[in-house]
Amino acid sequence: MVPNGWQKVNLKSLLSTTIKNGYSPNAVEQETGYVVLGLGALTDNKLDARNIKNVEATEQVLKSQLSHGDFLISRSNTPDKVGRSCMFRGEVANCSYPDLMMKFRANEVFIEPVFLEIYLQSSRTRQYFQNCAAGSSSSMVKITKSVVEKAPVLLPPLLEQRKIAQILSTWDRGIATTEKLIDVSKQQKKALMQHLLTGKKRLIDPETGKAFEREWKTIKIKDVFKAKTTRAKDSNYTTYSVTKNGIVSQENYFNKSVASQDTSNYKVIEFGDFVMSGLNFWMGSVDIYLNKTKGIISPAYKTFSVSNDVDLKFMYQFVRSDKFNQILVDSSIVGASVVRRNFNSDVFFNWGIGLPSMREQQKISSVLTAADNEIEFLETKLAHLKLEKKALMQQLLTGKRRVKV
User: Fold this and answer.
1) What is the per-residue pLDDT for 338?
2) How far apart are CA 252 and CA 175, in angstroms?
3) Residue 267, CA distances (Å) to 161, 264, 329 in order
4) Contact at 8 Å (CB) between 288 and 275?
């Protein structure tokens, strides 16, 4: 049903240009003053201007240069990312767009560009593109120029478009501010980890009121982690994977279980176990399991118990630090491909690490845990803002809720 005073049109009727594919030149290492967007530059609601590659200023590159107000849409991507779009606002100078994106401009006689951007990013339009996407591979699908041109748009009068855009832009600013706060908090925590986990900065001992002074002792990793293997006797466990984001439930991370039907060979993990990916360990796929309920993981993962002589929360922070990641890299060599490294357990387990007193470990872990809590609070706030904006979009972009102009 079309709201009173609105029109139902297709996208093509709202454009001032034809829809054109971009050009993907070979990237070069040196800075040339000219760049092309990477496919990952299009996120769900904005342009990631960091996702760029240096290119030579060839004739084809110059022909695919972007101007302020150009719209970009991902024409080939994974099923969940195809159809991502945004308006280019001159975030990067001398920037062109790749072959797997399309470009067009809005006709401002009929449509407010910011309103169009919001409409294209709405769940309704994204679902349209995903439904129309096709491809021979389940991992990469495409949408055609015709699909984009036929995208349905519920079009309010210009004044109402501008009011809707103004309201939703307020939410966007709140989201952007929260995202920046999260980035700042993560950088601050990273700096804290670099200083506190290396002893460069010493905290105040609450018992003395002075900075901790006791010299750190050097111990070997084998004194902290002991290999363990407990096989699953039944399937009544949640299955987990180890990622760069830590230990995560397969159901939550992959939206499905990727475990084998027979999990009798899987390893049981319990509270306090250190778990490491056998393949991606050097990319940060390590973590300490802090769930009170036992779970299972693939036999491809390495599992260890953690010594009671260290503070578990301190060690949790340590294994997720850049320092520990560098130890993993230095304890391995490049394998058959650049993304594979062969783990040398002898080097790893005999690696020496500095360890403060138990009291200082506990103080360090409390400071870093507080930083984690602040990040978690902001991420929860961000998720709520996005959900609230999504609900508001569904009302405003369908005319279920009208605005005063």
Assistant:
1) 60
2) 24
3) 56, 8, 25
4) yes
Distance CA 102, CA 85 (A): 9
pLDDT, residue 349, reads: 94
Query: So what's the pLDDT on residue 279?
Result: 81
Q: Give the pLDDT confidence score for residue 326 in this predicted structure.
A: 93
Q: Which pLDDT does position 362 carry in this prediction? A: 97
Instruction: Determine the pLDDT at residue 353.
Output: 95
Give pLDDT, residue 337.
62
Written out in words, the top-level CATH class of the domain with range 157-209+357-405 is: mainly alpha
Retrieve residue 78's tokens: 């994974």
Q: How far is CA 231 from CA 225, 228, 265, 290, 299, in A?
A: 19, 10, 6, 19, 9
Distance in angstroms (rounded) separating the CA atoms of residues 304 and 318: 15
Residue type for position 173: R
Residues whose CB is less than 8 angstroms from the CB of residue 290 and which lie 6 or more positions away in sequence, other chains included: 271, 272, 316
pLDDT per residue as tens digits for the range 219-270: 999 999 999 988 887 777 888 988 888 899 887 766 555 556 677 889 999 9
Same fold, 7-155 and 217-355: yes
The CATH number fitting domain 7-155, selected from 3.20.20.70, 3.10.20.80, 3.40.50.720, 3.90.220.20: 3.90.220.20
What number of residues does the chain have?
A: 405
Positions in the chain whose pLDDT score sits under 50 = none
Residue 253: the pLDDT is 62
| Architecture, CATH, for domain 217-355 | Alpha-Beta Complex (3.90)
Short-list 234, 319, 315, CA closest to 285: 319
Amino acid at 17: T
| Percentages (nearest 5) of helix, strand, coil residues in the chain | 35, 20, 40
Dihedrals phi, psi of 371, to nearest 5 degrees: -65, -40
50-57's contacts with Cβ under 8 Å and 24+ in sequence apart are 52/92, 52/95, 53/27, 54/27, 54/28, 54/29, 54/30, 55/25, 55/26, 55/27, 55/28, 55/96, 56/25, 56/28, 56/32, 57/32, 57/33, 57/94
68-83 confidence digits (pLDDT tens): 999 999 999 999 999 9
C-alpha 258/C-alpha 394 separation (Å) is 33
How crowded is residue 151: how many other Cβ atoms within 10 Å of its Cβ?
A: 22
Indicate the domain borders of the chain: 7-155, 157-209+357-405, 217-355
pLDDT of residue 265: 85
